[in-house]
Amino acid sequence: MADRRLKTAAERDDRQACGCRFAAARFIATPCNATLSTERLSKVGVVRYPARERRPERETMNRITALSIISACSLLSASCTTGVPRLEAPPNAPQTVSVTLPLLVPLEELFDNPAMQWGGISPDGRWLSYMKAYHGKLNVYIRPAGNAGTMPERAVTRDTVRPIPIYWWSADGRRILYLQDKGGDEAYHLFAVDVSDTSAQARDLTPFRNIEVEVLAIPPRTPDTLLITLNKRDPSLADAYRLDLRTGALELAAENPGTFLGYAADGANQVRVAYAVDSLGRYGLYARDSERAAWRLVRQYPVEDKITPVRFHPDGRRLYMLSNQGVDLSRLVLVDLAAGEESVVHTDPQQEVDIHSALFDDATGELLLTKYVGDTARFYPHTADLRQLLSRVWRAGDGAVELGSATRDRGRWVVTRNSPTKSAVTYLYEGASGRLEEFYRPRPWLDRYTFADMRPITFRARDGLIIHGYLTVPPGVTPRGLPLVLLVHGGPWERDTWQFQSEVQLLANRGYAVLQVNYRGSTGYGKRFARAAKKEFGRAMHTDLLDGVQWAVESGVVDPARVAIMGGSYGGYAALVGLTFTPDAFKCVVDYAGTSNLVTLLESFPPSWRPFLPRSWYPFVGDPRNPADREDMLSRSPLLRADSAKVPLLIFQGANDPRVTQTQADQMARALHARGVPVTYLLASNEGHGFGQAETGLAVNRATELFLGKCLGGRVQDTVSPNTEAALRAMRVDLDTLRATKPAQ
Fold first, then answer.
1. 295, 259, 270, 293: which is closest to 217 by C-alpha?
2. Per-residue b/e over 571-608, b at no fewer than 16 CB within 10 Å?
3. Most buried pick, 36, 306, 440, 693, via CB within 10 A?
4. CB neighbours (10 Å) of residue 709?
5. Calpha distance 745→267 (Å, rounded)
6. Element (H, E) at 38
7. What digits encode the pLDDT tens for the residues 339-388?
8. Which residues contact 666 (CB under 8 A, 6 or more apart)?
């Protein structure tokens, strides 16, 4: 399940500064640039970016470069925080006067392919890279980083079937590397294109059947060699390999003994660290002195603790990790691999949230930044050049700052700015001069529209737990008695953040208040908050959402008779729980790839997920092999409560979804249709767990707009393009033809 919400390929998103999407992998190398790496706490998945999403509790040694900064302040010390005020108690809604409604933003301008996005710079500084449409599909383009007029841009990938989901620069800047699957099935292969090859001939570097490949490292010392993980020996286990980019030859670096979840390589590109989860959900950190030596257990961590190996220290004897061993909030630590002892490197100075990520220089191993995300984000730069960079960018305007790729010498960076009310602008930063030069605007046509502000909120759940979230109120209206869309993030091991979000702005533009709740179990709020979600699917995780709605109602902003619930993946499950468990709480329901039966969900997970289940789904949701758990899971499955449903439902499902399979949607739609409950069912034959194609996103958002307009009375675009109408018609399912299947018991 695992995700945020589903989005179009076009919107994956204006917030990406690095020029490529960040993969949810066992271990992923720096997109666009192998010079810098950052490690973040794992999440289960991200449907918003449909191609690369996390598997259960895949606390990976990710190497990603985009670290967002939410700031409206100058650099006064080592940190900066935004001035966005939090709404902590139900406010008395201001008696504002209605003004002229903002222009209606066309769906196409929010969800069709952008003019350009995911910009990056090659490690050697010779090339700029970015993605734009090639025959209607997003592909990678390059142009010289110097005088753009010396050579025209050209497409270096030319996939006319499916958008490129993620790309990287090789360490020497000679190749573009990218992943691709078929129809959203998540069986990814790794491809390479030589940038000097004007024919753009892509080579499949992993031409094997039924495999998943993920990039572990793009080592700067050996630019012709990658470290990857691959499950070709056993579908459920990922081994580590060295891949020769010139010949495609594979060399085994570490064979998975059956329990390893991931690996880390030292500065000499030797895989010397792994971590595992046992059948009880306990972590084990393993190390070895060389690839020829035996693995040894460095330390075992209790089931309540969470560790995320990050990268080796330059001395080769210690390992950076994110760890909450013995404390509530995760912090950056160094682990002595001989003694197993942790020493704290950095923890949240405000003691509010887990560490989100750390940014390192791949060449030197130097720690550059640490990041924490509460209501907004805080950065703590650790080097003079990063302090200068952030100070310069903060002076350029308000909003979120994302650091993308950089050259090997850190002399030039790709940097993006956006806020909830402003679409992104991406810049090139020159360190020597401090100059910011505009690189591109992903959606320049959005500048003429007025967007809604997103306000952080806090409320107390019925059991006393403090819950954070965001409230977005449409501009141009008096904020009283508004229809509300409760927009539930996926995962559930994810969270909502303060940023420009196209689906939020669409809803607000149509006249709806939008409530986003970081319910218990959402990431970033510490160990106790995470563990408060154990076995609470359909229970306290749902009442947190209801308590958020009640908070909004008591504020006077929301009309309790006009509330819809909407979400994707876990958010889709939450929507179906609202439909069936609390049928009087919502006027209508929108479900994107939501689970209707928890038992069959876990039983249908792909083999590569199985090693992660003892740490995530089994303790948090239940183990269907255990009779007591199985009965409990069925009691929290919306399909078995279908008789309680009353209000209209819109379902979207990808036919190739390997996480929440089509059966989940088929059975729910059939059960409700048989009872006469209004159901609109959209099935995309070429999609998986999300929207990979722009036309899919346009069609689904059109259906959502029409559905909510009829249910809640918001504004609706008069017409859309014939292509969007055709895509929507092609996805509609005739419910009378759905084959009845018996739900699991």
1. 270
2. bbbbbbbbbbbebebbbbbbbbbbbbbbbbbbebbbeb
3. 36
4. 16
5. 51
6. strand 36-40
7. 999 999 999 999 999 999 999 998 899 999 999 999 998 999 999 999 99
8. 653, 738, 739, 741
Count CA atoms closer than 13 A to 619's CA, side-chain side: 20
The confidence score (pLDDT) of residue 82 equals 46
Contacts of 710 (CB under 8 A, 6+ apart): none
Token pair belonging to 503 = 């689906």
Place of tokens 């594979």: 250
Burial of 303 (0-12, 13-18, 19+ CB in 10 A): middle
Task: Residue 19: name the closest of 377, 427, 400 by CA.
Answer: 427
Whether residue 507 contacts residue 709, with contact meaning beta carbons closer than 8 Å, is answered with no
Q: Give the separation between CA 347 and CA 259, rounded to whole angstroms.
A: 30
Provide the β-strand partners of residue 142.
Answer: 129, 154
Burial of 250 per CB tally in 10 Å (0-12, 13-18, 19+): middle
Q: Is the CB of residue 417 less than 8 Å from the CB of residue 429?
A: no
φ, ψ at 447 (rounded to 5°):
-60, -25
Residue 365 exposed, middle or buried by CB count within 10 Å (0-12, 13-18, 19+): middle
Active site residues: 569, 657, 689
Spell out a b/e string for 396-411, using b for 16 or more CB atoms within 10 Å of the CB, else e: eebbbbbbbbbbbebe
**Spatial distance between the Cα atoms of 633 and 258, rounded to a whole number of angstroms:** 27
| Pairing verdict, β 331-336 and 342-346 | antiparallel
Predicted TM-score of the model (pTM): 0.90
> For residue 436, which of 386, 385, 387, 393 has the smallest C-alpha distance?
393
Do 478 and 472 form a contact (C-beta atoms < 8 A)?
no
For residue 183 the two structure tokens come to 């129809």
Helix H segments across 14-97?
A: none
DSSP assignment letter at 629: H
Q: Which helix (H) or strand (E) holds 540?
A: helix 540-554
Structural contact between residues 662 and 652, judged by C-beta atoms closer than 8 angstroms: no
Beta bridge partners, 320, equal: 311, 334
Sign (positive or negative) of CA dihedral 688, 214, 21, 160: negative
Residue 612 tokens read as 């992660």
Taking the chain, what is the end-to-end CA distance rounded to the nearest angstrom? 20
**Cα 381 to Cα 369: distance, rounded to the nearest angstrom:** 4
Residues in the chain: 745
Tens-place pLDDT, residues 478-532: 999 999 999 999 999 999 999 999 999 999 999 999 999 999 999 999 999 999 9
Positive or negative, the Cα torsion across 284, 285, 291, 295? negative
Report d(CA 667, CA 665) in Å as an integer.
Answer: 6
Closest by Cα among 497, 566, 594 to 1? 594
Percentage with pLDDT > 70 across the chain:
85
Amino acid at 287: A
In whole angstroms, give the CA distance from residue 52 to residue 46: 8
